[in-house]
Amino acid sequence: MTNCYKGAWKPLWDVHFVYHGHTVTFDEYGLIPYYFRSLRCLLLQRRGGIFDAGEEMKTYVEKPTTRQRDWYMVDASNRNLGRLAVVLANTLRGKHKPEYTPHVDCGDFIVVVNAKSIAVTGNKLQDKLYRKHSGYMGGLKTHNLAYMLENRPEDVLRMAVKGMMPKNRLARAQLRKLKIYAGAEHPHEAQRPKEMKIDI
How many folded domains does the chain comprise? Predict the structure, then answer.
């Protein structure tokens, strides 16, 4: 059994921790001795422990110069509006990556096609309302979901994803990576987007 730390592979029984003044070593099977078994659940949570002969464990922070952002394509046909929006919001923020950093835009680009064929449950087509106001007296306009899907299906999904993201400058920049199209055609063939697998 081996353990990877900072790119170096070492046998797990050569790694030791200092825990409350006691040196904890792994046996030849990679297990912690019985009298230190309570330490199992703390190894990944400790912040003051010493790892690998005196080196401190540090939290990885992604940088704009080292991030990798891919392109994905999603077919929204017969996809539930809310469940799809959750997946898109997390992918735009990069929360599906182990190197996720809250203050860095490490998410991916997403191309959504067939937004006009998105699905909802219940009577939301008639009951769900979208309101906007011009700022003048009597300037309130209200449309239901059925009207929006017929005339502006891109805005329906974009507003759903926007509501599931933080309200700050970083989220607004991340939302610009979402490309939504009502039909099956899109102008992003040059980016070679990969099909995203969504289990919803």
Answer: 2
